[in-house]
Automatic annotation (TrEMBL):
It comes from Rarobacter incanus. One of its GO terms (cellular component) is cytosol. This is tRNA (guanine-N(1)-)-methyltransferase. Gene3D superfamilies: 3.40.1280.10, tRNA(m1g37)methyltransferase, domain 2. Homodimer. One of its GO terms (molecular function) is tRNA (guanine(37)-N1)-methyltransferase activity. One of its GO terms (biological process) is tRNA N1-guanine methylation. Belongs to the RNA methyltransferase TrmD family. It catalyses: guanosine(37) in tRNA + S-adenosyl-L-methionine = N(1)-methylguanosine(37) in tRNA + S-adenosyl-L-homocysteine + H(+).
Length: 267
């Protein structure tokens, strides 16, 4: 896969040289290029923004500069990704779809964003165009959102992760539940023991214990995920009993046993 990122702050994307995304590049599975939007300006001051037509706060990125850049970088098979807080939510499912594409181009805006005609034009020209938000909060520009999306996509490129099982088993994968708690040695740490079933070597009991903890955690903080899984027929009678018991404890003001008692909570 090829990825181009266009930004007025290309140094923001230096983190892509590290870790997993860097390894993907070394292995040849991924080729990331970061480019400076100002290279496509034509005036002496290398202007990329102008005042919002109709009035309002801040500045808007000029469509002509973005047009110059994108005409150069986009190819027939490219997908244009525009990070914006007003886009569709970037999910694991969207990451998986983007991971199938041969070329991604991230257009990172700043200020109040990019003139709306840019997305409109490339969509009308037949370029697959995705305006995407990484969550309901506001950043100062698209660079950090692009980093998040690129990391989520890069680890899904076939042949990327050392252990492919770690991809299918994790949160927001097939199971539709939050991940169960994980532990490593020592068995006792600061007076807290690893739960006994995990030390038993009884694989069916371990699987059941992990599913129960995942169900409890999901019921407590992501009832939306639990409802979606139920609608897909993904909850057994045993699962439903565990969820009912967890809901009972939560309504009584309790916390799941693995979260411990008497601690300080943010909320
Ligand atoms: C200007 O919050 B965000 C985000 C914020 C932005 C731009 C892009 C994305 C461009 N502000 O994800």
């Amino acid at each position: 896969m090829k990825i181009d990122v266009i930004s007025i702050f290309p140094a923001y994307l230096d983190a892509l040289k590290l870790s997993l995304v860097g390894k993907a590049q070394e292995s040849g599975l991924l080729d990331v290029n970061v480019r400076d939007l100002r290279d496509w300006t034509t005036d002496r001051h290398r202007t990329v923004d102008d005042t919002p037509t109709g009035g309002g706060a801040g500045m808007v990125m000029k469509p002509d500069v973005w047009g110059n850049a994108l005409d150069d970088v986009l190819q027939r098979e490219s997908t244009l990704v525009i990070p914006t807080p007003s886009g569709e939510v970037f999910t694991q499912a969207l990451a998986a779809r983007l991971a199938q594409r041969p070329h991604l181009v991230f257009a990172c805006g700043r200020y109040e964003g990019i003139d709306a005609r840019v997305a409109q034009h490339y969509r009308a020209a037949g370029i697959a165009t995705v305006e995407a938000s990484i969550g309901d909060y506001v950043l100062n520009g698209g660079e950090v959102a692009a980093l998040v999306m690129i990391e989520a996509v890069a680890r899904l490129i076939p042949g990327m992760v050392g252990n492919p099982e770690s991809l299918v088993e994790e949160s927001h994968g097939e199971a539709g539940l939050l991940e169960y708690p994980v532990y490593t040695k020592p068995v006792s740490w600061r007076g807290i023991e690893i739960p006994a079933p995990l030390l038993s070597g009884h694989h069916a009991n371990i699987a059941r214990w992990r599913r129960d903890r995942a169900l409890e955690k999901t019921a407590a903080i992501r009832p939306d995920m639990l409802a979606a899984l139920r609608d897909r027929g993904g909850l057994s009678q045993t699962d439903e009993a565990v969820v009912r018991a967890a809901d009972e404890v939560l309504r009584a003001g309790g916390v799941p046993a693995t979260e411990g008692e008497g601690g300080a909570d943010f909320s």
